[in-house]
């Protein structure tokens, strides 16, 4: 699923953003079972990058939006860390943090982050990039929940976070 050539191309596109303390800090929170928010976001970013290249779309924007789509930066399991329902609230928090980290985020990237939970959340995708991120997120989440993430050795193929607990 993850070959050396495509991984090299992907990392050369996303490396600078991947190494930021904000993105690295996602490694402290579990997202789907034992898959961390960092691992999930990196997986979504990679799949979105590959699909965007296949469909001749903006693969840089796809990799960026994929990496930032869950940048909510709090424990999803601590109800005191965020107001309201996690499903509805976390895309709003992720967009807020993504805009602070990347001031030149495009309207398409912003819409991709805000709508990635649709139809489970209120905001609907309004562009091709948002549909691509929405699909990539659901594809990766499914593989993670079904434990295929481990079977396919995705964790072993991807760069580990340097974040220390
Ligand atoms: Fe999410
Ligand atoms: Fe996600």
Q: What features would you describe in this structure?
A:
The structure is a single chain. The protein has 165 residues and is mainly alpha-helical. It contains 9 helices and 2 strands, in the order ααββααααααα. A two-stranded antiparallel sheet has the order 1-2. The longest helix is centred in the first third of the chain and has 18 residues, at 37-54. The termini are far apart. The mean pLDDT is 95. Bound molecules: fe (ii) ion (2 copies). Residues 40, 44, 69-70, 137 line the site of one fe (ii) ion.
Structural class: mainly alpha
CATH homology-level superfamily: Hypothetical protein af1432
Poorly predicted segments: none
- Fraction in helix: 55-70%
Radius of gyration: 14 Å
Bound molecules: fe (ii) ion
* Count of β-strands: 2
Categorize the overall geometry: globular
Distance between the termini: 29 Å
At CATH level 2, the architecture is: Orthogonal Bundle
């Amino acid at each position: 699923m993850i070959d050396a050539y495509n991984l090299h191309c992907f990392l050369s596109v996303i490396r600078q953003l991947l190494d930021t303390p904000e993105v690295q800090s996602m490694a402290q929170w579990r997202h789907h079972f034992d898959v961390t928010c960092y691992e999930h976001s990196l997986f979504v970013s990679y799949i979105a990058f590959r699909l965007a290249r296949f469909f001749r779309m903006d693969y840089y924007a796809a990799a960026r939006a994929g990496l930032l789509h869950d940048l909510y930066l709090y424990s999803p399991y601590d109800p005191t860390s965020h107001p309201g329902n996690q499903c509805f609230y976390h895309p709003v928090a992720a967009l807020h943090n993504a805009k602070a980290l990347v001031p030149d985020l495009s309207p398409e990237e912003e819409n991709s982050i805000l709508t990635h939970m649709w139809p489970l959340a209120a905001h609907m995708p309004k562009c091709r990039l948002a549909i691509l991120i929405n699909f990539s997120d659901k594809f990766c989440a499914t593989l993670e929940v079904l434990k295929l993430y481990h079977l396919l050795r995705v964790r072993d193929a991807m760069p580990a976070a340097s974040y220390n607990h």
